[in-house]
Amino acid sequence: MVKVELGGCSSFVKEFDYKEYVGKALAAFDVLESEKGAGNDFLGWKTLPVDIPESLIADCEAIKADWQKRGVDLAVVIGIGGSYLGARCAIEALSHQFVRPEGTIRIAFAGNNLSEDYLAELMDLVEQSNTACVVISKSGTTTEPAVAFRIVKDYLEKKYGKAEAAERTVAITDAKKGALKTLSTQEGYRTFVVPDNVGGRFSVLTPVGLLPIVLAGFDVRAMLKGAADERAELLKKGEKNAAVEYAAMRNLFYSKLGKKVEVLVNYNPKFQYLGEWWKQLYGESEGKDLKGIFPASVNFTTDLHSVGQFIQEGDRVMFETVVKVEKAQRSIVIGSDEQNLDQLNYLAGQHVEHCNAMAALGTKLAHIDGGVPQIEVAVEKIDAYNLGSIFYFFEFACGISAYVLGVNPFNQPGVEAYKKNMFALLRKPGYEAETEQILKRI
Ligand code: PA5
């Protein structure tokens, strides 16, 4: 279960103010639970941990088994934003960072940018591999994944023939509409549905996240169990509810202390993409109506040697939320050295993780001294179960937080602006008037 620790905030806030924000968070909890708040047609994520049927997981496993029979050793997973970040976060967190176990399918992500170099280098890998493809787009019309899929599809059809390429392609999209749905029906791809009432950034526990995670070889049943247990815990309304505590404190920092930036901190490189997933979740959910806490992320101790300087002494605009992992999964003890030229013998016999923990504690105290409050979000270890807990915790707390802030957590009107300009500049048919306008500006 996720635990929230607020000791690193106490010197910054008055008890009276915190109580006021707990009250606001409890009211927001009621809005979320009553399902009467803004965006309430997008609340399907709330029950996913208990709604996902065993048959869906079995279908994912059947695809994996079928592809392995065909000798597939690479799955290109195409998608962007909410159709990408959850799977990437889970796979990066659960994978060995250097070695891919024999017989497993390698996952390569594509369609999350428009870089020609990225795609060309991806195709170098595809050419050396026995490849299959998962294309994920709820709308079925997003440019980045559509461009990548056109290239991968063309390659698969040339290499394996149209029928075999179709067997090596799975589409995850809307149940009824969109270009990807039409194409899937036409080509006979196996498909999974992104539920209508689940927005992209809340979709990691749908096939959008589950299929890639199964293909990568990880235990989605444990992940769903972690999410279900977290849900049961978070449904207990009260001042000590972890999501209420987190939502209350971050809104207090924002509204009373002028802390406009929240930095999600990890001390384990496996959680780099947790930061990316969390940034989308909070950035798209809260950053609207000229309001919102800007979500940033850092990897410590790595970034203590770069932006750590700013956090310690720069403009005091931020607070930190540290994702604390109680236990390392592996064990390495620092040895003793006769010469001790590096002067590390005082650490001989200590676990590396002990040094990491002391770095975290030292940083916490230094940042508090420097005017940066710290919330801790702790989990026991990095595994599928705890990742499920973390996903559900941050989603639930996000709903509460955004309602405290007074915005609709479940829409993202701002993501359309760049697309309109891009289409006008690319001269997409139907955008002639916008093209004329934009050419006057550049
Ligand atoms: O959260 C969102 O809705 C967006 O970030 C989408 O996930 C992203 O734009 C991808 O959209 P789609 O799945 O329709 O291709």
Q: Structural class of the helix and strand makeup?
A: alpha/beta
For the sheet with most strands, the description reads: 5 strands, mixed
What is the helix content?
40-55%
Alpha carbon gap, first and last residue = 52 Å
Enumerate the strands of the largest sheet in spatial order, edge to edge or round the barrel.
1-10-9-7-8
Low-confidence stretches: none
Bound molecules: 5-phosphoarabinonic acid
SSE topology string? EHHHEHEHEHHEHEHHHEHEHEHEHHH
Shape: globular
Percent strand: 5-15%
Count of alpha and pi helical runs: 17
Cα gyration radius (Å): 23 Å
Q: Could you report the average pLDDT, rounded to the nearest whole number?
A: 97
Number of strands: 10
Overview of the structural elements:
- By secondary structure, this protein is of the alpha/beta class.
- It has 17 helices and 10 strands.
- It has helices spanning 15-34, 48-51, 54-69, 85-94, 116-128, 143-160, 162-167, 179-187, 207-215, 220-234, 242-257, 272-286, 308-313, 352-369, 384-405, 416-425, 432-441; strands at residues 3-5, 74-78, 106-110, 131-137, 169-173, 190-193, 261-266, 294-299, 318-325, 374-379.
- The strands form 2 sheets. The chain has a 5-stranded mixed sheet, sandwiched between helices.
- β7 (261-266), α12 and β8 (294-299) form a beta-alpha-beta unit.
- α1 (15-34) packs across α11, α4 (85-94) runs antiparallel to α12 (272-286) and α16 (416-425) packs across α17.
- The mean pLDDT is 97.
- 5-phosphoarabinonic acid (PA5) binds next to loops.
